[in-house]
Write a structure and sequence with these properties.
The structure holds 2 protein chains of 2 kinds. By secondary structure, chain A is mainly alpha-helical. Chain A contains 13 helices and 4 strands. Chain A has a single domain, classed as ABC transporter involved in vitamin B12 uptake, BtuC, CATH 1.10.3470. Chain A is 75% helix and 2% strand. Chain A has a two-stranded antiparallel ribbon with strand order 1-4. In chain A, strands 2-3 form a two-stranded antiparallel sheet. In chain A, strand 2 and strand 3 form a beta hairpin. In chain A, helix 2 packs antiparallel against helix 10, helix 3 crosses helix 10 and helix 6 crosses helix 10. The longest helix of chain A is centred in the first third of the chain and has 40 residues. Chain A is globular, with a radius of gyration of 21 Å. The two termini of chain A are 36 Å apart. In chain A, 48% of the residues are buried. Among the domains of chain B are: 190 residues, Rossmann fold, CATH 3.40.50; 74 residues, no CATH class. Chain B has 19 helices and 23 strands. In chain B, helix 7 packs parallel to helix 8 and helix 16 runs parallel beside helix 17. Chain B is globular. The N terminus of chain B is likely disordered. Classes of the chains: A mainly alpha, B alpha/beta. Chains A and B meet through helix 1, helix 8 and helix 9 of A and strand 2, helix 12 and helix 13 of B.
Chain lengths: 330, 523
């Protein structure tokens, strides 16, 4: 093939792939808008500002933070399964520090620091002891949940401090603070992913670690960072969650892990790493949040809700996955 | 399952066409992919016992033709004949039933299985659902012994050498076409990963088996094609531009038909090679570096603007020496001095800091992020020091250096954001090189830099290497292709058993060693 025919061929490839690309890119959008339309038509309350802001958006924030946390390890082809335990641990630490140690606002950075340390621990065991991240974080998922529950003593602990509560519960121009925090962090993660060396190496490591290593990068360091970031974001999620309800039960955070991974994959970040990004994760989060809310409004039996949620996740992933790049699925 | 498929083997048809000497014939094959004509009215025939060479630049249509011959792709037009009988293959299994099979360029064996298990893969002998392992193992050993292939079929394939794996693949090709009395075996770039002795073994095998099969040999290495083939077909831009008997062909004549232009002694741009007074100071001093018992001690000094060639047979350690110089293998003794700084057991990161860039032999698994853009691949090394130690990227600088790399290296890509996966092999390799040029790396360690790229792209890489040395860049040029290393290098070290044999050969223009001289030292 001559140069011009190569160019023609590439152009042809692009033209030909457009429809498929559109479906892949728009899959989660279509799913989301489909759900919004269905629930708007079938319920009176869904499409109200109160419902969308106070229920859908607020409830989505915790899942969003946890899903953003999980996105970076997955981008570099590892995984962090300990996310929900970090939420539990940091949430409990926040409440204990405020209620029993009277630390006030200082509790927040300490709790987030605990989250980062947890992530650092995951990252160090993963890289230095070369234990697969799946197993490290499966272990710490259990360990940190246990530590958190021991601190609570097995019952819900509460605090009273309205000024601290306002961080999560207030609102600015009618928009709940919680939602604003979620958006702020969402934007920050996009900047991290696309404007920093850290983000670039996440994508690169996710595709081929050998290539990155031979380019002279300090690979271990960049493999640890995503876990620290994950701990940081889960820490923020734990703090906001407990400030919102002024309490921490031994069960907070539980049940976040699987929806967060579903949201990440639905958004378009492949479990095989290297493609996608946090900007897309929000789509998966919204699909799940809208679906949960709509089904509640329709008073669908909670067991049936589980079935529908599972089916929607599989359908959304099937729509959005880029099969061209996948030879073998395991 | 398997016996049922073999029942439609064309015994009768073979008899009726007994007067037809060609065992395999394609007539007027055309194939287009959307706007591009990949094959245009190509005809080819192979007679019994013949070895047919098939050459052409990347993109000339060789792979498309092989895919059509083995039923992977369907031709738009044209007809295949096996033993004179018109046939249509819709998948490789049907092709195999007629005796047509392909030995892949990328080895297609499962390393965790044993040799005989690979040989019988998907066609296992079983009785009541139980594998007849002993029977398969015995039959397989007898089968490979009969072919004159010296492998232990009971061993795991992961213990096989590269060469043995290929032998196994050839055995498999014969095995799947057992029911045909004249198998047609298509060898796609079979020598791409082989070194000198492996190549010889392969050629001996093909020569021994030429009475029992028809071979189609596809390769970039024209002297190999000339060595083994009886007749040679040349494809260019999807058309058959030449068919010649081997007696009438030379590398020059083939190259000329392939690329449509004259190539001669200028191929390696020897006149541009820097000579003694033009060479600069010592850029890198390698002092008795040792990796382990097998590699080292090795010492040499590399001067600015010099190309230092390293050759050796498979297992000589030249590839691992390259990795050692890149910081990718542990250095247990010795040191490397660059710019007055001694590097003792450096990491890759240390070597990159010192100004050494490594270009690995296997660009797909170690050189490129295939599903990332040209820009991401080009800037992968330069982002380390971007903005000092700040963690943020300088997107403008990335755009700028990628744009200039695309222009200077003439990388054919739709744009900086196109995925590397879609580029041709030659252009992919240029992206790997561009990564180091983007940060002005003064010392390059290249391991088989032109492996698997077409003649035109090779020429461009040679030109590029010459230009770089003119600018003072030094290159350690590790290679399996002796003519290339001889043509490109200022000096050539021969490696065996992890050490240099004697002093490096002087390879100044007009005073270059011959292949024979090097081979004598290598073995």
């Amino acid at each position: 093939m001559s140069t011009s025919s190569v160019k023609q061929w590439i152009v042809a490839q692009r033209e030909q792939r457009t429809l498929q690309d559109w479906i892949q890119d728009l899959g989660p959008f279509v799913m989301l808008f489909g759900l919004v339309i269905i629930f708007s038509l079938t319920t009176d309350r869904f499409a109200t500002q109160a419902n969308l802001l106070d229920n859908v958006a607020k409830n989505a924030v915790t899942l969003l933070l946890v899903a953003l946390a999980g996105t970076f390890p997955i981008l570099q082809q590892s995984i962090d399964l300990s996310v929900e335990s970090v939420v539990l641990l940091t949430g409990v630490v926040t409440v204990v520090l405020i209620a029993e140690f009277g630390l006030g606002l200082l509790a927040i950075p300490i709790a987030i620091g605990v989250g980062m340390l947890a992530g650092l621990f995951n990252g160090l065991v993963f890289t230095k002891l070369k234990v697969p991240s799946f197993l490290v974080t499966l272990g710490t998922l259990s360990v940190m949940a246990g530590v958190g529950k021991i601190i609570t003593g097995g019952s819900t602990i509460t605090f009273r401090n309205n000024s601290i509560r306002a961080i999560a519960n207030g609102e600015i121009l009618g928009i709940p603070n919680l939602v604003l925090w979620g958006l702020l962090i969402y934007v920050a993660t996009i900047i991290l992913a696309f404007r920093t060396k850290f983000g670039r190496y996440c994508f690169a490591l996710g595709e081929n670690e050998r290539v990155v290593e031979l380019s002279g990068a300090k690979v271990d360091r960049y493999k640890i960072y995503p876990f620290v970031l994950s701990g940081l974001l889960c820490g923020i999620a734990g703090v906001l969650l407990t400030l919102r309800i002024s309490s921490a039960s031994p069960n907070i955070g539980s049940g976040l892990l699987l929806p967060s991974i579903a949201a990440i994959v639905m958004g378009g970040t492949a479990l095989t790493g290297g493609v996608g990004g946090p900007h897309r994760t929000i789509l998966g989060v919204l699909v799940i949040a809208v679906l949960n809310n709509g089904m509640n409004l329709l008073s669908i039996d909670s067991f049936v809700q589980e079935i529908i949620l599972g089916l929607v996740v599989v359908a959304a992933v099937a729509l959005s996955i880029d099969r061209d790049k996948i030879d073998i699925v395991k | 399952m398997s016996s049922e498929i073999y029942t439609d083997t064309p015994d009768a048809a073979a008899d009726s066409a007994a007067d037809d000497a060609s065992s395999f014939r394609v007539e007027g094959i055309s194939k287009s992919f959307r706007h591009v004509q990949a094959l245009d009215d190509v005809s080819l025939e192979a007679n019994r016992g013949e070895v047919i060479g098939l050459v052409g630049e990347n993109g000339a249509g060789k792979s498309t033709l092989l895919n059509i011959l083995t039923g992977v792709l369907e031709a738009d037009d044209g007809q295949l004949y096996v033993d004179g009988e018109p046939v249509t293959f819709t998948n490789p299994r049907e092709a195999a039933n007629y005796g047509v099979s392909l030995v892949h360029q990328e080895q297609d064996v499962i390393t965790t299985l044993r040799g005989y298990e690979n040989l019988y893969l998907a066609r296992e002998k079983e009785r009541l659902g139980v594998l007849q392992k002993e029977e398969m193992r015995k039959n397989a050993q007898a089968f490979v012994d009969d072919l004159g292939i010296n492998i232990d079929v009971n061993d795991h394939v992961r213990n096989y050498s590269f060469n043995e794996r290929q032998m196994l693949e050839i055995a498999k090709a014969f095995h799947v076409s057992q029911k045909s009395d004249n198998p047609v075996i298509l060898l796609d770039e079979p020598t791409a990963g082989l070194e000198e002795n492996g190549r010889k073994l392969l050629f001996d095998l093909v020569n021994d088996l030429r009475d029992r099969a028809t071979f189609v040999f596809v390769s970039h290495e024209l002297d190999e094609v000339l060595d083994i083939s009886d007749r040679i077909y040349v494809l260019k831009d999807g058309e058959r531009v030449d068919m010649t008997h081997v007696e009438d062909a030379t590398t020059d004549s083939l190259q000329q038909s392939m690329v449509g232009r004259e190539t001669a002694d200028e191929y390696y741009r020897v006149p541009d090679q820097r000579r003694e007074p033009q060479l600069g100071e010592v850029a890198m001093e390698v002092d008795a570096v040792v990796h382990d018992d097998m590699i080292g001690p090795v010492s040499f000094s590399l001067r600015e603007g010099e190309i230092f060639g390293i050759v050796g047979v498979e297992g000589s350690g030249k590839q691992r020496l390259g990795r050692l110089l890149a910081g990718d293998l542990k250095m247990i003794d010795g040191s490397i001095t660059i710019d007055g700084a001694d590097l003792v057991n450096p990491s890759v990161s240390d070597m990159v800091d010192a100004g050494v860039g490594y270009i690995p032999k296997d660009r797909k698994s170690e050189g490129l992020l295939l599903y990332q853009s040209v820009l991401v691949n080009t800037s992968l090394a330069m982002i380390r020091d971007m903005n000092g130690n700040m963690p943020v990227l300088d997107l403008d600088a990335e755009q700028e250096s990628t744009a200039s790399a695309i222009e200077e290296l003439a990388i054919k890509t739709p744009g900086p954001n196109a995925l590397v996966h879609g580029l041709s092999g030659g252009n992919q390799q240029k992206v790997v090189i561009a990564r180091w040029l983007a940060q002005d790396t003064p010392i390059l360690v290249m391991d088989n830099v032109t492996r698997g790229i077409d003649v035109g792209a090779k020429e461009e890489v040679y030109r590029l290497c010459r230009e770089l040395t003119q600018q003072g860049v030094s290159i350690v040029f590790i290679g399996d292709e002796l003519p290339e290393v001889i043509g490109m290098s200022n000096r050539i070290a021969v490696m065996a058993d992890g050490q240099f044999i004697g002093e490096p050969f002087d390879a100044s223009p007009g005073d270059k060693p011959t292949e024979e001289e090097l081979i004598q030292e290598m073995v």
